[in-house]
Amino acid sequence: MKDLRKIVLMCLIPVLLTIIFIACFTVPAITQYMGLTKKINQEKSSIKETQSRVEELRANKKLANELAKLNTALAGFDVEFPEEFRDEIFLIDLEIFANEAVNRIVQLQSSSEKNIEITDPNAPETAKKSKKRAQVKDEELLPVQIIEKSFDINTVAYYSEIINFVRFLESYQRKINISGISAKIFKDDTESLNPKIEIKIAASVYKSVINEIKEENSKNAEIKK
């Protein structure tokens, strides 16, 4: 009987030691491992979130640079393409130019306003044609519209003075597109050795119209695409 107890006791000792080892070493190690795994997952999540924020910051920086370039390119847009034609101011400026260049304006005619079609010069030809077809079916409202008003100026002066007048027009703060110039000897100076010249300048000025694009229109445009 004693031998049996000894055998049982000897068998229980390794079991107890194993239980003690598991309780003292294995369980804390597993707990620590689980804790470290959780921290690693949290760090991975933080790294992904940080990377996402970095990519977002890079995208925002790129967008900010593009906007800065665009703002630089459009620095004088409001001056060159104002919201109103302000004909009275333009006429006063023309008179000032004529006086400075010693020109005499004998006639000034203006045409009705017309909308300028805005197209992407880098777009493929097929895309331009398809866009024109789409505009025929459903006129697209652009964020910015450019309105043109053509005018003809007849002025009389000597050649060098006319050149100065044209330079004044070219350097005007507003956008002026000179589409044609025709000249002839002034009728009252046909017998003169140094006759004055009557010149007709065909040109255009522009204004811009800013359209408010609603979200519904933009969504519809995206759906059409």
Element layout with pairings:
Blueprint: H1 2-73, H2 77-80, H3 87-100, E1 104-116, H4 125-137, E2 144-157, H5 159-170, E3 176-185, E4 197-210, H6 215-224
What would your notes on this structure say?
- A 4-stranded antiparallel beta sheet has the order 1-2-4-3.
- With 225 residues, the chain is an alpha+beta fold.
- The model has no long low-confidence stretch (mean pLDDT 80).
- It has 2 domains: 1-75; 79-224, Alpha-Beta Plaits, CATH 3.30.70.
- It has 6 helices and 4 strands, in the order H-H-H-E-H-E-H-E-E-H.
- The protein is rod-shaped and about 150 Å long.
3D shape:
rod-shaped
Instruction: Give the quaternary arrangement of the chains.
Output: single chain
Structural category: alpha+beta
Q: Class of the largest domain in CATH?
A: Alpha Beta
* Helical run tally: 6
Strand content: 15-25%
CATH superfamily assignment of the largest domain?
Answer: Ribosomal protein S6/Translation elongation factor EF1B
Spell the H/E element sequence: HHHEHEHEEH
Low-confidence stretches: none
End-to-end gap: 94 Å
What is the mean pLDDT? Answer: 80
What's the gyration radius in Å? 41 Å
CATH architecture assignment name of the largest domain: 2-Layer Sandwich
The number of domains is 2
Largest sheet: 4 strands, antiparallel
Explain briefly what this protein structure is.
With 225 residues, this protein is α+β, with helices and mostly antiparallel strands. It has helices spanning 2-73, 77-80, 87-100, 125-137, 159-170, 215-224, and strands at 104-116, 144-157, 176-185, 197-210. It has a four-stranded antiparallel β-sheet with strand order 1-2-4-3.
